[in-house]
């Protein structure tokens, strides 16, 4: 007998108390928890996202669509970044000419990726109540490793359409067959005497740009 | 004690040793109190916490009651998505499967992200015997591994180490396993974290094989979920070519939607955050993104025996948030090592004896490592009634009975007169001789009387007494509280923890129970 059969056999013997007529679906699960913890306007949702991102030490910037390229240029210049990995879905005019744009190339050795200054991505969805951005390897987000290895991550969120209130709403929008990374602030550890230190292995600086037509002046 | 829990002394012996260690106690106290204050805030932010808790418990219950169905569904989904599924009856088989998989890649090093299942089975030692070095990559696990000792807390495994000790460990040991720490390394946590970043980055960038556990596996879609803070998990899950995940069979949840419950309760209950910094999900393999070879090892190792016990089964709902450790007066005194397994604290006291049986002195003593105060139940995000299971396991130690051992119904004899009984008695005595632990216990009991067992199953001589007499019900106000109320807060005790205990107790008045 295979181990598979043995383990499944043990499980079935262990569950003899479960009535025959009980199916997985009719084993009751109360779902009276909430879909969202408040009703919010688009503007309130955007503000809450900004607040919660900042609370977990992401650097938050806001701009209208027309101001995006200038803001990105400014953020890169402030760090002295010269090389930026950007997936194909990032429009060419988002990056200034003097910056070396590096493609998201699966054959690139991790060490080369490590030598790049920054990464620029979009996101699949953002969660206001938790201050989370979710990347799902879409065309403007790229492979998982590009938002991991470089030390500086700029992530662009389009408001209001990419922002949801809550975790349940985010999951409903996402496709589980795509690899996902949920990011809530830069990486952190409290392993040494519970002192929080930001940035252990992921990008130590996370900048989130919230782009909203409502901010058009 | 190089990385193994075998042959550990029984709970009271180990606990007595660690209560003598003032530093460990100070650190633990600071850690548990800090985390639990923050946690209360994070939980209070959600007005539907009790509903989420009820849903989480029910979802896990549904899964456990139909575990065969969900595991088969999971296996199909993972396989369809390009992954390979292996089944392991016990630790030895799981270790053999992983070792073979690593050897097949021709590699002699693997990077690991913290996983309690691999700790439970002693995977690192098994790999070492096959000439494979496993590098732990969580900061705390790295400290533990370099310091050649054992984790003491689920969430902050190196909580028993101070910063100056960590600096010394990094300075003297990092060089042996790769990039050395800078000579002038200070004990500033920032510098220590930076040293770890540089040391481990070398490993990540070269890694060909990653080993992980998982917090959840979604039966419907075959998706695995890893919840973490530092980013070492993402490194291990995405940079290597081969990924091997060792996961207990109880970690399955029915649907993708069900994650909406646990992704809300786990971070808040665990690290007291709205959301942890990083959560990774993956389904089989993805072309040119992450590992091209994915293996899932489904681990039984005693879980089906726990499943067969209709009272003990609920321990398998655990999502390893560690909230129960942080509120446990006995854990705070005894420290994590005293529990002698990968699972410390209240959850360890009910899980370990079920996974391993109550045959050894240590395992027979664990159900007594509690004052039955019920605080662990109240914080548990999947509503595991830990006191109920403890009482049930005490009965098993004392009276014996029919249990499942490796899937076979077996009758165990009462521990009466055996070494196990003596260990259990010592544990009970240890708990009752620590006034603070007991006081917190009695106080909680009076606020949550339903939790108190009607009969106190004491072993041996005490048993006749407890069999024939109902345990006196706790008075609405315990004697100690009355004493303190009428004599003022400083009466009769030099225990600095009392204000805190009082505050908790008061908030419990009229609470959920
Ligand atoms: S038993 Fe409950 S509180 Fe304790 S670690 Fe498990 S889920 Fe958390």
CATH topology of chain A: Rossmann fold
Q: Cα distance, first to last residue of chain B?
A: 42 Å
What name goes with the CATH superfamily of chain A? NagB/RpiA/CoA transferase-like
Q: Unreliable segments of chain B (pLDDT under 50, ≥5 consecutive)?
A: 439-513
Shape of chain A from CA axes?
A: globular
Protein chains sharing the most extensive interface = A-B, 73 and 100 residues
CATH class of chain A: Alpha Beta
| Structural domains of chain B: how many | 2
Instruction: Tell me the name of the CATH homologous superfamily of the largest domain in chain B.
Output: NagB/RpiA/CoA transferase-like
Count the E strands of chain A.
12
Strand content of chain A: 15-25%
Give the class of chain A from helix and strand content and strand pairing: alpha/beta
**Helix coverage percent of chain B:** 40-55%
Please give the CATH architecture of the largest domain in chain B.
Answer: 3-Layer(aba) Sandwich
Q: How many domains in all of chain A?
A: 1
- Work out the number of β strands of chain B: 12
CATH T-level topology of the largest domain in chain B: Rossmann fold
Give me the CATH architecture of chain A, please: 3-Layer(aba) Sandwich
Let me know the largest β-sheet of chain A: 6 strands, parallel
The number of helical elements of chain B comes to 24
User: What do the pLDDT scores of chain B average to?
Assistant: 81
């Amino acid at each position: 007998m295979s181990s598979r059969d043995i383990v499944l056999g043990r499980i079935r013997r262990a569950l003899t108390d479960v009535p025959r007529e009980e199916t997985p679906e009719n084993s009751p699960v109360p779902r009276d928890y909430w879909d969202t913890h408040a009703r919010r306007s688009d503007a309130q949702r955007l503000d809450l996202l900004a607040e919660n991102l900042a609370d977990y030490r992401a650097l938050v910037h806001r701009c209208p669509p027309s101001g995006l390229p200038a803001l990105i240029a400014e953020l890169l210049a402030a760090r002295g970044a010269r090389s930026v990995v950007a997936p194909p879905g990032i429009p060419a005019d988002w990056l200034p000419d003097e910056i070396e744009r590096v493609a998201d190339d699966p054959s690139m050795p991790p060490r080369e990726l490590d030598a790049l200054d920054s990464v620029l991505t979009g996101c699949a969805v953002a969660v206001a109540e938790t201050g989370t951005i979710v990347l799902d390897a879409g065309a403007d987000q790229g492979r998982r490793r590009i938002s991991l290895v470089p030390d500086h991550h700029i992530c662009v969120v389009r408001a209001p359409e990419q922002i949801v209130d809550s975790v349940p709403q985010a999951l409903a929008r996402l496709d589980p067959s795509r690899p996902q990374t949920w990011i809530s602030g830069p990486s952190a550890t409290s392993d040494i005497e519970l002192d929080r230190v930001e940035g252990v292995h992921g990008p130590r600086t996370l900048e989130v740009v919230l782009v909203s037509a409502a901010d058009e002046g | 004690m190089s990385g193994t829990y075998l042959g550990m002394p029984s709970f009271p012996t180990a606990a007595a040793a660690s209560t003598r260690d003032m530093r460990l106690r100070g650190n633990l106290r600071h850690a548990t109190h800090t985390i639990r204050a923050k946690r209360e805030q994070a939980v209070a932010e959600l007005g539907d916490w009790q509903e989420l808790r009820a849903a989480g418990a029910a979802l896990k219950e549904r899964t456990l009651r139909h575990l065969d169905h969900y595991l088969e569904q999971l296996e199909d989904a993972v396989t369809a998505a390009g992954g390979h599924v292996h089944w392991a009856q016990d630790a030895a088989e799981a270790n053999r499967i992983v070792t073979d998989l690593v050897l097949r890649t021709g590699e002699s090093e693997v990077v690991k992200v913290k996983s309690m299942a691999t700790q439970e089975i002693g995977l690192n030692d098994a790999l070492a015997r096959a000439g494979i070095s496993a590098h732990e990559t969580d900061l705390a696990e790295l400290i533990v591994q370099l310091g050649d000792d054992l984790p003491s807390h689920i969430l902050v495994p190196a909580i028993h180490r101070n910063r100056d000790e960590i600096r010394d460990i990094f300075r003297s040991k990092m060089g042996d396993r790769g990039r050395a720490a800078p000579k002038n390394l200070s004990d500033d946590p920032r510098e220590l974290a930076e040293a770890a970043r540089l040391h481990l980055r070398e490993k990540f960038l070269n890694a060909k094989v990653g080993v992980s556990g998982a917090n959840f596996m979604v039966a419907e879609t075959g998706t695995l979920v890893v919840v973490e803070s530092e980013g070492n998990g993402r490194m291990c899950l995405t940079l290597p070519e081969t990924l091997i995940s060792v996961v207990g069979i109880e970690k399955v949840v029915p649907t993708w939607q069900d994650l909406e419950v646990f992704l809300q309760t786990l971070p808040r209950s665990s690290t007291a955050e709205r959301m942890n910094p990083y959560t990774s999900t993956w389904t089989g393999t993805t072309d040119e993104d992450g590992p091209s070879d994915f293996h899932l090892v489904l681990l039984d190792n005693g879980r089906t025996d726990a499943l067969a016990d209709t009272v003990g089964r609920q321990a398998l709902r655990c999502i390893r948030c560690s909230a129960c450790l942080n509120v446990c007066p006995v854990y705070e005194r005894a420290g994590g090592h005293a529990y002698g397994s990968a699972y410390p604290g209240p959850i360890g006291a009910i899980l370990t004896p079920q996974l391993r049986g109550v045959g050894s002195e240590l395992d027979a003593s664990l159900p007594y490592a509690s004052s039955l105060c019920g605080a662990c139940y109240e914080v548990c995000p999947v509503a595991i009634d830990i006191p109920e299971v403890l009482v049930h396991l005490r009965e098993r130690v004392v009276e014996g009975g029919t249990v499942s051992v490796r899937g076979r119904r077996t009758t165990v004899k009462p521990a009466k007169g055996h070494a196990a009984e003596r260990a259990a008695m010592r544990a009970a005595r240890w708990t009752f001789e620590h006034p603070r632990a007991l006081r917190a216990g009695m106080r909680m009991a009076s606020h949550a009387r339903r939790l108190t067992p009607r009969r106190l199953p004491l072993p041996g001589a005490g048993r006749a007494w407890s069999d024939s007499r109902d345990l006196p019900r706790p008075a609405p106000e315990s004697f100690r509280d009355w004493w303190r109320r009428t004599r003022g807060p400083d009466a009769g005790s030099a225990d600095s923890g009392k204000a805190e205990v009082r505050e908790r107790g008061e908030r419990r008045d009229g609470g959920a129970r």
